[in-house]
């Protein structure tokens, strides 16, 4: 985690787990702490403050946190013996859900804060410094944290995340997000556009809009995600737009049409389905059927024929049968996904699914996950191989791993590497794919100087 500032008198280490929204929150925490003199370090031994920004989605998230805290306690004690104080903070969804338990199990932690109170970090640091003891702030304040975060963001690079919506009203049976992030709330369009313009002015070419249910966006001045995307597309300098994570229930006609209308909107959509079995979807409280999902995919592909899909799947949800698992595999084969995130179901305290009968044995979940992952690897490689021989545009994000190599992302979010000058960073250049693996494409440049001059002229 880097703030890009090496002039501060105090050192800050932020370790981020989980989703892109946590990455965004970590960047903003670094920003609000910069005026206090904090600059980045990657070493806990050098850090005057360590923040663990946690995620509650992954299995055994809390235990992983306590394991990391145990290691950091040793560092904190060693620094204290040499006369250096360390502020140890836990942020994110585990902090929100288990603040009191963190205080009990790890009393050496100084700050515990939820995702909605990151703007209060400077105040919390001051309180901890003055009084000592734990500072706990896991409220859901009436005012939006975005109203108090710095309006200007430091340069993020060629690509950047931009949170436009937070929270969730869907209450899926397996999910803790409504309890840790709160109700759905959207930022005003004017604030989003201002942040986007600031990023573009510093060289950002691709912006990914973030939200727990980003397509439920309903911010003042836009009213829908589709309307917001049309406004963002008018900002000079934005070459690419993406958004995640979406819910099938909020994929409306206007948003589907935007995929056909906006060339800046990239043809890769992350649309979690979770299961291909209607009984499991009902038990999950997803609010859609497998056929609903199929129809949405068909409509999106009609609007943008080259659109590819990624998704989320949970195997072994309580009550899932062998037939239900087979239905999921059938859906995967029918849709053909470019990639997917696949998980075993694991109980989250306080969620309905954690109390549900018919919990699936771990061995069964393991076997089902292996089968699904093998199918997804096969599909991802097939999708990448289908690009071989095709020409398309790539946004160059910087140097590759080898001398003389540059790296970037395809419209479908595949990692791309090619031989070329680093001066093309930030440019959209045309390439031809000549090789593929499960995780990347090997390409050659096609008339890069022409594309570079076109963009400078624009």
Question: Summed up, what is this model?
Answer:
By secondary structure, the chain is an alpha/beta fold.
Report what the structure shows.
The protein has helices at 20-33, 61-81, 93-105, 121-131, 177-180, 189-201, 225-233, 253-261, 278-284, 290-303, 322-335, 362-385, 448-457; strands at residues 10-16, 38-40, 49-54, 87-92, 111-113, 135-137, 159-163, 165-166, 185-186, 206-210, 240-244, 268-270, 308-315, 339-344, 391-399, 405-409, 415-419, 428-436, 440-446. Helix 7 runs parallel beside helix 8 (253-261) and helix 11 packs parallel to helix 12 (362-385). The protein is globular. It starts with 9 loop residues before the first strand and ends with a helix. 44% of the residues are buried. It is built from 13 helices and 19 strands. The chain has 458 residues and is an alpha/beta fold. It folds into three domains: 10-137, 3-Layer(aba) Sandwich (Rossmann fold); 145-385, tm_1862 like domain (pyruvate-formate lyase- activating enzyme), CATH 3.80.30.20; 391-457, OB fold (Dihydrolipoamide Acetyltransferase, E2P). The chain has a six-stranded parallel sheet, with helices on both faces. A five-stranded mixed β-barrel has the order 15-16-17-19-18.
